[in-house]
Amino acid sequence: MVPEIQHIAITVEDGSLAVMQFVTKAEFEREATDEAIEAEIVKAGIRAVSWRRIDIKDLPTSRDFRAAWNYDGKIVDVDMVKAREIHKSRMRAVRTPLLAAFDVEYQRADEEEDSEKKASIVASKQLLRDVTEDPAIAAAKTPEELTAVWPEILKEKAEKKAEGV
Q: Contact at 8 Å (CB) between 82 and 68?
């Protein structure tokens, strides 16, 4: 028997959106009745406010900002305010070890009394601190535009770190 899958958009108490795949006609031999779906939501421990059946084509194609999905009763889209915060958090996660590495470099430059190197490190650290303030983040209207906002300093430094430089 070929399983059939129904997608269920669930609005959760915390305002987030969960998407459940409800499988029918497989080894379970169950129908996708409202009662069966509600029982599965409860079984999954989801504190649902409401739920609706949706078509898979109504889901965003990219899961990059999955935690920012919302459902307006017709389609699932991306809450760009939440997506921007997710993007900034990702930048911070990449930035944190880079700042720590600069702290070590600064201490060495201080021990060597290399004021030029210290000034360069200070400038680089400021660039890293400013990455989340890029106006392009606020200007991004779509998830794709937002994803494209990734400062070179994060790319360059992360690549060097990966290479062990």
A: yes
